[in-house]
Amino acid sequence: MSAYADTSFLISLYTLDVHSETAVDAISEAELPLFITPFGELELTNAIQLRIFRKELTKSQGKQALALFRHDIAAGIYFQKPLLGSAFERSAHLSRKKTSSLGTRTLDILHVASALDLRAHVFYSFDLRQRTLAKSAKLHVLPVE
User: Fold this and answer.
1) Which CATH number does the domain housing residue 138 bear?
2) Cβ atoms of residues 96 and 90 within 8 Å
3) 77 Cβ partners below 8 Å, 6+ apart?
4) Residue-range definition of the domain harbouring residue 130
5) pTM here?
6) Does pLDDT of 145 surpass 80?
């Protein structure tokens, strides 16, 4: 079964936060590899840099987190797939159908649309609105909270 991990899940794997223990437990039971797009990699990189800016991580910790993530890509934990133009079309459709009722943000929609375009069945996220959108799109959302 294929799976997609959003940034809220990935950041909890590679930096310490309130969801880290749950993320580690979930990934240990996940069917690997997980899909990742260049967009997801960019967003994770930026999230780590923001944590450095906010003094939640040192530069050394941020560098280590990114190195571990790249190592995991090379080790086959993630399968890199391109972000297709159809993901933007699907995002626009999801926006028209769901944003007015769910309050989803553009990047949240793009993650869900990417998962759908990559034919993922499972969606890993800690973001409440994104999880709700993914469920409405018939994705199985993990971890269960």
Assistant:
1) 3.40.50.1010
2) no
3) 27, 32, 33, 34
4) 3-142
5) 0.93
6) no
